[in-house]
Write a structure and sequence with these properties.
There is one protein chain. It is built from three helices and two strands. The protein is mainly alpha-helical. The longest helix has 13 residues. The chain is flat and about 45 Å long.
C-alpha cells in the first residue's frame, strides 16, 4: 500500500530505559532517542513467547504539511491502509 516500514530492533539493552523505581516499568523513554524501539521493547513484555506481533509507531507520520503520493495535505491516515490490507489478505481471504 506504499506505507514504508522497517523491523525495529528488540534488544535487552532497551530494558534499562523502561525500568522504574516506583512501578514495575514505565512506558516512556528517558530521552528522545530510540523511542519507537523502546516502545516495542515495552510491548514485548505483554506478548507470550511464540506469538507473532507487530508495533506500528504511527504518531510521527499522521500529518503532512504538503501533498504526498499517498495522501493529500493534512491527515495522512498512515497505517490505516496497511492494516486494512493485512486484515483483508490474512483473514478475509
Amino acid at each position: 500500500v506504499g506505507d514504508k516500514l522497517w523491523r525495529l530492533p528488540l534488544d535487552e539493552g532497551y530494558d534499562k530505559d523502561i525500568e522504574s523505581q516506583i512501578a514495575d516499568m514505565k512506558n516512556v523513554a528517558s530521552n528522545r532517542w530510540a523511542g519507537a524501539g523502546i516502545a516495542a521493547q515495552f510491548l514485548k513484555r505483554f506478548v507470550k513467547d511464540g506469538v507473532p506481533w507487530a508495533h506500528l509507531d504511527i504518531a510521527g507520520v499522521t500529518w503532512a504539511s504538503k501533498d504526498t503520493p499517498l495522501a493529500p495535505k493534512g491527515g495522512t491516515g498512515y497505517g490505516v491502509r496497511l492494516l486494512d490490507r493485512f486484515v483483508a489478505d490474512a483473514y478475509e481471504g
